[in-house]
Amino acid sequence: MDDDVLQELWARASQGLALETLLFSLFSELQRSGVLDAAAFSRVFDQAEDTLTATALKLGKQAPPKYSTGALQIVEQIRTEFGLPKN
Fold this sequence. Notes:
Helix content: over 70%
Number of helices: 3
Distance between the termini: 43 Å
Number of strands: 0
Structural class: mainly alpha
Order of helices and strands: HHH
C-alpha cells in the first residue's frame, strides 16, 4: 500500500477514535449528571439507528455492506454498555 494512502487511513482512524472517545465521554457524563432521563437518553440511540438505517438505504450498493451494518452494531454495543433497553 502506498505510504500516502496508509497515512491517510491512519489519520482517519485517529479521527474516528477521537470522536468515539469524545462521544462516549459525553454520554457518560450525561448519564451520570441526569441531564437526560433514561427515556430521552434511549431516544438518542433510537435516532442514531434510524439515521444509520436511512443512510444505508440511501447509499445502497455504493458503500461496502459492512459499512452501515458495522455502524449499527457499534451503536447497539454502546447502548448495551450504558444499560439502555432497545425501544
